[in-house]
């Protein structure tokens, strides 16, 4: 059964899941799984009944799905107001006026000690970690009052509404989504708030490209306000990996910035780590889609869930792989060209999509990735392309290819383009788990889509497939796609509000290299904007926890005292699933977003005191070694030769965990956690408080920021 604990829909969605059982194209029926999302069009445009939504939902507030918990991206209602979660701001002096007074009042925040020390630790954690938070108030870009007029009154059959080529009055034919503003690009919708405006004021403007990354790093002066050390090695390690570790920092220092990046951009030459070799303990990763279909019952009996084991493996690679930049890019593309892990058919096809589409092209060519994705059963089933035929066109895939996977909502396409693209792509589908072109379903006739024109006169599978592939390559190389990819990469690696100068240069490199990824990344790392952006990104929940596991040196081997409770799965497999489940609780895990827009990549979308505290609790569990499926470095051994005074010990521990010294005030807060002064004599266990002290340092802005 699929986990329904998934983030709420984005407010752009104008269709609602009706919760009814749905027969899958493969012939399976699993009423527990959410449907493949169709986010914009009313149900009567499709020959299936996946959605029973209406196009005019401007007054609807989208809450959680059935059984869904609250953690996840902070969402906004269709009216443009932020969904209130209660107190959201914790300032440097503790919770603000909307807070909980001096006490967060949340469970499991304290160690089992006396009330005085417990209150002290609670205040220190709230004050220290809270400085990384951003006020999430303010209205997003709202759905305007024009929505009803744009779509017309479908129930009344409004004859004055704009009409599509098929006469359907529900589509504003000939008008661009960006101009009618029925919805906005996802990150933009979150940044259209007071918090987003505040972030923009601290973003460096302007810059230039240098001869290489090392030259850019040496020539760039960091001028933005930040608590992070203005150290280029630390900066690169936190942006190009899932978390700096002593080994990563030493590798960059030893190899140099340019050589380290060249090494990372050639992942095939990087040897797999011990943890990656242990992925053989996840049995479904070795099976083809055909084998997964044939062995479904046996796998269920063994408790093996292919779609979850794929996520487990991704988490393992993020924590332990030396191919860190590659894994960061895999995560980027999994949000950009997003196919959820949990959908009808995902248990059979999603791992193959990960291997044969995302990982195959993550550092090579986006045009080839888009073409491969549109021939893969996972995407075709996820977006209902299997249901599309000439006499009953399903627009899901055609729309997302334009809005999300290429030119973007501001890319210049119209509703007429969507319809034409959907007609061109009829015929593509899935039969017996394999991609197939069904000529009897294919529409024949001239099409024109965003400047792409073709006679589309043949139902011959080879010719029709070649035409569709040519259209997809045209989309992937469109100037709007170049800019959309550039904007997304700059948002991931540089800032939630990346400078236009950088986006323009990245788009130019993308176009000049026909969608090749490595040249774009080298332009990014050779730009002064990247090196000037220290402290401009905040870790999302998954990134925060993965960075914690990395910096604490958790090992993939089981602890000596591990006791198996289930012989069907190895300790490693069980441990990965426990991390996976924890990330689900936080609403952020690989390929977890149910809708095809992927997770938002700006911190304003993730502001939540509850999520922050749950992350701190996880840090406490890791420091205490509670998950015995793994091995841990004892907190008192994190520093090789611990100083004998509390102040010096805090300095040494901060350099080990967050790779820099703390300010005098931060250091005072940390000492307050232990209830000692800087000159107090301490042993290696910090007089019994080492776990609390390390946990507080990992709750600091220096660990939340990247």
UniProtKB/TrEMBL annotation:
Comp. bias (Polar residues): 168-190
Q: Please, which domain of life does this record's source organism belong to?
A: Bacteria
Q: Where is the composition biased (Basic and acidic residues)?
A: 10-32, 41-57
Give positions of region: Disordered. 1-120, 158-192
Alphabetical UniProt keywords: Membrane, Transmembrane, Transmembrane helix
- Which InterPro entries is this protein grouped with? DUF1800
One family name in Pfam for this protein: DUF1800
**Where, by residue number, does the polypeptide cross the bilayer?**
124-143
Quote the biased-composition stretches of kind Low complexity, using this chain's numbering: 63-80, 158-167
Q: Does the keyword Transmembrane apply?
A: yes
Q: Know the name of this protein?
A: Uncharacterized conserved protein, DUF1800 family
Q: Which organism is it from?
A: Micromonospora pallida
């Amino acid at each position: 059964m699929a986990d329904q604990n998934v983030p709420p829909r984005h407010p752009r969605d104008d269709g609602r899941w009706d919760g009814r059982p749905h027969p899958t194209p493969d012939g399976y029926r699993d009423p527990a799984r959410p449907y493949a999302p169709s986010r914009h069009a009313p149900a009567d445009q499709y020959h299936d009944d996946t959605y029973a939504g209406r196009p005019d939902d401007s007054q609807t507030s989208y809450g959680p799905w059935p059984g869904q918990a609250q953690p996840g991206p902070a969402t906004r209602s269709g009216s443009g107001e932020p969904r209130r979660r209660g107190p959201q701001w914790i300032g440097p002096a503790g919770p603000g006026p909307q807070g909980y007074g001096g006490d967060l009042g949340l469970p499991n925040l304290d160690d089992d000690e006396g009330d005085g020390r417990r209150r002290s630790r609670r205040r220190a954690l709230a004050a220290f970690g809270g400085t990384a938070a951003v006020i999430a108030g303010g209205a997003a870009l709202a759905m305007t009052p024009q929505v009803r007029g744009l779509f017309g009154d479908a129930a009344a059959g409004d004859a004055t509404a704009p009409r599509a080529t098929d006469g359907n009055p529900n589509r504003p034919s000939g008008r661009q989504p960006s101009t009618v503003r029925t919805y906005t690009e996802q990150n933009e919708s979150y940044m259209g708030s007071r918090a987003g405006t505040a972030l923009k004021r601290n973003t460096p403007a302007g810059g230039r490209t240098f001869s290489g990354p090392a030259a850019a790093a040496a020539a760039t002066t960091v001028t933005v306000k930040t608590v992070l050390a203005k150290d280029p090695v630390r900066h690169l390690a936190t942006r190009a990996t899932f978390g700096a570790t002593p080994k990563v920092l030493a590798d960059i220092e030893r190899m140099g910035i340019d050589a380290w990046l060249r090494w990372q951009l050639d992942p095939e030459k990087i040897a797999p780590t011990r943890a990656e070799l242990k992925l053989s303990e996840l049995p479904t990763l070795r099976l083809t889609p055909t084998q997964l279909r044939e062995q479904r019952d046996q796998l269920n009996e063994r408790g093996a869930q292919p779609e979850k084991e794929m996520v487990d493996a991704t988490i393992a690679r993020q924590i332990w792989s030396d191919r860190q930049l590659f894994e960061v890019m895999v995560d980027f593309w999994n949000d950009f060209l997003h196919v959820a892990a949990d959908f009808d058919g995902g248990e059979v096809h999603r791992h193959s999509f990960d291997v044969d589409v995302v990982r195959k092209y993550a550092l090579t060519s986006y045009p080839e990735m888009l073409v491969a994705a549109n021939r893969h059963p996972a995407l075709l089933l996820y977006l209902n392309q299997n249901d599309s035929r000439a006499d009953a066109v399903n627009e899901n895939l055609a729309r997302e290819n334009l809005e999300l996977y290429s030119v973007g909502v501001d890319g210049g396409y119209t509703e007429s383009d969507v319809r034409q693209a959907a007609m061109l792509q009829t015929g593509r589908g899935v039969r017996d788990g394999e991609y197939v072109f069904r000529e009897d379903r294919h529409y024949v006739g001239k099409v024109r889509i965003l400047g792409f024109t073709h006679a589309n006169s043949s139902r011959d599978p080879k010719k029709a497939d070649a035409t569709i592939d040519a259209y997809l390559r045209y989309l992937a190389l469109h100037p709007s796609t170049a800019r959309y990819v550039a904007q997304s990469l700059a948002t991931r690696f540089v800032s939630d509000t990346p400078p236009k100068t950088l986006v323009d240069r990245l788009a130019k490199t993308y176009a000049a290299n026909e969608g090749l990824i490595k040249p774009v990344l080298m332009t990014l790392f050779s730009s002064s904007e990247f090196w000037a952006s220290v402290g401009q990104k905040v870790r999302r929940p998954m990134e925060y926890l993965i960075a914690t596991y990395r910096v604490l040196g958790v090992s993939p081997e089981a602890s000596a005292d591990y006791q198996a409770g289930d012989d069907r799965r190895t300790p490693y497999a069980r441990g990965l699933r426990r991390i996976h489940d924890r990330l689900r609780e936080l609403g952020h895990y690989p390929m977890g977003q149910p809708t095809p827009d992927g997770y938002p990549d700006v911190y304003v979308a993730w502001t939540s005191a509850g999520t922050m505290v749950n992350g701190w609790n996880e840090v406490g569990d890791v420091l205490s070694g509670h998950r015995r499926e793994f091995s841990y470095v004892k907190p008192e051994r994190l520093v090789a030769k611990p100083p004998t005074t509390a102040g010096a010990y805090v300095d040494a521990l901060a350099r080990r965990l967050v790779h820099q010294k703390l300010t005098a005030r931060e250091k005072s807060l940390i000492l307050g956690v232990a209830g000692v002064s800087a000159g107090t004599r301490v042993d290696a266990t910090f007089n019994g408080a080492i776990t609390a002290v390390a946990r507080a340092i990992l709750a600091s802005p220096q660990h939340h920021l990247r």
